[in-house]
Specification:
alpha/beta, five-stranded parallel β-sheet, three-stranded antiparallel β-sheet, 8 strands, 17% strand, globular, binds cytidine-5'-monophosphate
Length: 226
């Protein structure tokens, strides 16, 4: 089997991580794993079961009981939990605005990290995106990227995405939501969002998706040659 590597892509909300990670996965023939979708899936299930987002014990019990499947699809990845397709539901405003509270609990993160590592043992060649992939989930990843963009640019991109889904939120409101989520993710005690020491920093503010995906694919090819 040809040599393949693990690629970790971290960064703040709406920096383009998932779109680009998906493209890189496709270009290289690697499996793409969206870890944010897993935290979102737990948040969705917790809300459906009326579980308090501050109750780390209950949330981790729930996580232990549910089965989260990330299934490759024409649009990238479907999220199936206990047989229910919640791919679109996990992008709702309420999930987006509650997910950081769920993700801050140490017990939840320990279980989640284990599930994420288990997923990588099943595949050869992986692109995983999230907040703590390079620092905690895959500290041995051969290529680590820390991807960001200005908050104004990220809000603009989210605005366009939301608009296509029939949701209209003002740019100011989106900037606020994104900044609040970044703050919560960066200030939490358990594996906060931060750049790994050996990660390559990419600012995507004035770059196209294609440019960044090419840049990362080339870096991956370089690592394969090492
Ligand atoms: O990437 P996405 O915006 O879908 O992630 C949703 C949320 O899940 C993040 O804001 C963060 O609170 C949490 N998350 C995390 N660690 C990861 C991936 C996501 O804490 N590896």
């Amino acid at each position: 089997m040809s040599k393949r590597i693990k690629i970790a892509i971290d960064g703040p909300a709406a920096a383009g991580k998932s779109t680009i990670a998906k493209k890189v996965g496709f270009k290289l023939g690697y499996t793409y794993i969206d870890t944010g979708a897993m935290y979102r899936a737990l948040t969705y299930k917790a809300s459906a079961s009326n579980i308090d987002m501050e109750d780390g014990d209950k949330l981790s019990e729930l996580l232990d009981q549910i089965e989260i499947l990330l299934v490759p699809s024409s649009e990238g990845q479907s999220v199936i939990v206990d047989g229910e397709d919640i791919t679109n539901a996990i992008r709702s405003k309420s999930v987006t605005n509650n997910v950081s509270a769920v993700a801050k609990h140490a017990k939840v993160r320990r279980l989640m990290v284990q599930k994420q590592r288990d997923l990588t043992t099943l595949v050869n060649g992986v692109v995983m995106d999230g907040r703590d992939i390079g620092t905690t989930v895959l500290p041995d990843a051969e290529l680590k990227i820390f991807m960001t963009a200005s908050v104004q640019e990220r809000a603009k991109r989210r605005y366009t995405e939301d608009e296509a889904r029939g949701i209209t939120t003002s740019l100011e409101q989106l900037e606020k939501e994104i900044s609040d989520r970044d703050r919560a993710d960066s200030e939490r005690i358990e594996s906060p969002l931060r750049q790994a020491d050996d990660a390559i920093y990419i600012d995507t503010t004035s770059k196209t998706i294609e440019e960044v995906a090419d840049e990362i694919s080339k870096l991956a090819e370089g690592r394969l040659g090492e």
